[in-house]
Amino acid sequence: MGSVVHGMAQPVGYLLLGKALDAFGSHIDNKDGIVHALKKVVPYVWYMAIATFPAGILEIGCWMYASERQTTRIRLEFLRSVLRQEIGAFDTELSSGKVIAGISTHMSVIQDAIGEKLEHFLSCFATFFSGVSIAFICSWEVSLVTLFVVPLILLIGATYTKKMNAISAAKMIYLSEATTVVEQTISHIKTVFAFVGEDRAIKSFSDCMDKQSVISRGEALIKGVGTGMFQAVTNSSWALIIWIGAIVVTAGRSSGGHVIAAVMSILFGAISITYAAPDMQVFNQAKAAGNEVFKVIRRQPTISNASGGIVLKEIEGNIDIRNIHFSYPSREDKVILQGFTLSIPAGKTVALVGSSGCGKSTVISLVARFYDPSKGVILIDNHNIRDLDLKCLRQNNGAVSQEPSLFAGTIKDNLKVGNLDADDQQIENAAMMENAHNFISQLPDKYSTEVGQRGFQLSGGQKQRIAIARAVLKNPPILLLDEATSALDSQSEKLVQKALEKAMQGRTVILIAHRLSTIVNADEIAVVENGQVRETGTHSTLLDTSKFYNNLFNMQNISVVCDERVLSEKGTEIEESLREDPEQEEHKKRLEAVHFFRIWFGLRRTELVKIAIGSIAADFSGISKPVFGFFIINMQSGNWLLSLVSHILQHYYFGVVGEKAMTNLRKALNLRFCPWFSPPPPRASPGTQVAAC
Ligand SMILES: Nc1ncnc2c1ncn2[C@@H]1O[C@H](COP(=O)(O)OP(=O)(O)OP(=O)(O)O)[C@@H](O)[C@H]1O
């Protein structure tokens, strides 16, 4: 309502202006008559002024509030849906770039469209419709002329919208691809630096940007032609309307004030439609963004924790894996497990050994039901895990993976992931048990030390010990240990191994380790080959019966793994790196300024020429309106052409240069500055910050 009232205010104002002009024109030699006639008009001007004030508040306030609330809800739904999906979806449809673009870039576009732009669009259309209505009331002859103009404007609008729609969708795809590149690079930044992959990363990013640039050039041209044609058509129609108005007044069929009110209402109604045209572009972008977002929201996961299932009060831990066949959704043609069968009685430890890539970790993923096998069943305490409540199943599993994943936050936050209700004493006990307490105590803020993105500021061994302590804190009946001690040095491994053995007591454990020292005490060892269990037995029996195991044992006896790390040194390194250097701060500020200028001065001479042409064209398109107002009819023949050409040049050149500047900005935020990714630990991923640009 606020938008409609606000939009109507303009034509109503012209109606009142017309009435005021008539008050002067009809009583040209009679001052009292003018005052008397004006007294009838002025109160309505006041009423209008009073009505537009709350309308303005309602318009801006309500739209902003509603759009904020809606996008917050959509964002939440999006995140809920993402977290509801099965792991396989992340291997295929839900790349991290897509998810990040969905929750940041796409949502901003949607918020803009359903807030500010919709409000503006409604207001413009209210101006147009009320303008046409007032014009018909004031002078039907003048109004009829608009019937010829409006379809033309709508035709241009429809064509423009269709073209921009296609362009927006294509741009979204490339933006998503570019976001994925940045996300991948930032999340593996050390590897990128180690392999001197910065240039390759920038090249992949530039390729996406170049594709987007080509599309943007087309977009700028279409925008220029569309807006220019809008202006040209409205300018030409103004001339026609004014000409008809002059005839009507001369013939005495309407007063001059009414004709002026009709002309102004129609003219500015038509202009308001042209102002609404760019909103259509945002609606198109929002439509494309909404499609992407709602595709994710509506996606039904194949494995869902919302589908209910049996909640077991207590799990003993008998695991029975029967004739499992499995291939990953992203590579369905490659069969990983083919008839894998293994029984693990409650409280026992079974170790899996086999060559790299034979499917050991896959078995653990299936027991945790990250994926479902295509054939065969996995039973826990004689219940098919497909029938169990997913949350119940996972709450009773404690997993430590090959790559311990820590979250940005403190060490305590990370340990509490295992048990949110754990108190400080329980946390410390778990850390002590896993030989993590010592190194934590040496850190600057002890348990409150920030670990950085993905535990960036800790060594691999430290991360692994925190991950083990986290699993122990969860106290589950089933432990899934996938190379849980692979990143530890030999000394720490021995200590953690002892602690792990203690933690494994009374639990069912599936253990994967390449170092045989870790598995010699397992109750049973299964040798996995080509996705099947080939042999089983204890360490001593397998030494006699399994050629593979025997070879492995002999090989490990001659190769001494040396992975000495001085833990206290690492602690000191972190302390050093956490300290802020004032000179660095100053340098950082200077760098920021340099980056800003790089965006513009990175533009070459051709771009500067384009900026100059675009600016001159923008000046002309701005000048065309007051010039038209001054020469109202005489200039029309030239004015539409001026308007068309200036709009095309303005939008095209600024579009092209704007895209180039954005590319420069993205490149300026390049990956060359290693310290940029280090402390102080950012809460929001830098990848997200770069991509959000
Ligand atoms: N998410 C995935 N999508 C597609 N293929 C995958 C995925 N994860 C693993 N694979 C493939 O499945 C096969 C088995 O992987 P798995 O991680 O189970 O092996 P593994 O025996 O644990 O190896 P390693 O001892 O080296 O850890 C490998 O060929 C691997 O490339």
CATH topology name of the largest domain = ABC transporter transmembrane region fold
State mean pLDDT (0 to 100 scale): 78
Q: Looking across the biggest beta sheet, what order are the strands in?
A: 6-7-8-3-9-10
Count structural domains: 2
The whole-angstrom Rg is 35 Å
Heteromolecules bound = adenosine-5'-triphosphate
How much helix is in the residues?
55-70%
Which consecutive residue ranges, at least 5 long each, have pLDDT under 50? 558-580, 671-693
CATH superfamily of the largest domain: ABC transporter type 1, transmembrane domain
Structural class: alpha/beta
Number of strands: 10
CATH class of the largest domain: Mainly Alpha
Distance between the termini: 35 Å
| Most strands sheet | 6 strands, mixed
Task: Supply the number of helical segments.
Answer: 23
How would you sum up the global shape? elongated
Please characterize this protein's 3D structure:
There is one protein chain. This protein has helices at residues 2-26, 31-84, 87-91, 96-138, 140-187, 189-194, 198-250, 256-298, 360-367, 390-395, 411-416, 424-433, 437-442, 460-474, 490-504, 516-519, 539-545, 547-558, 567-578, 582-601, 605-631, 636-668, 686-692; strands spanning 319-326, 337-344, 349-354, 375-380, 383-384, 397-400, 478-482, 508-512, 524-529, 532-537. The protein is α/β, with parallel strands linked by helices and 693 residues long. The chain folds into two domains: 2-302, ABC transporter type 1, transmembrane domain (ABC transporter transmembrane region fold, Up-down Bundle), CATH 1.20.1560.10; 319-576, 3-Layer(aba) Sandwich (Rossmann fold). A six-stranded mixed β-sheet has the order 6-7-8-3-9-10, with helices on both faces. Strand 9 (524-529) and strand 10 (532-537) form a beta hairpin. The two termini are 35 Å apart. Residues 558-580 and 671-693 have low confidence and may be disordered. It holds the Pfam family ABC_tran. Residues 319-555 form the ABC transporter domain. The chain crosses the membrane at residues 44-66, 143-161, 232-252, 258-277.
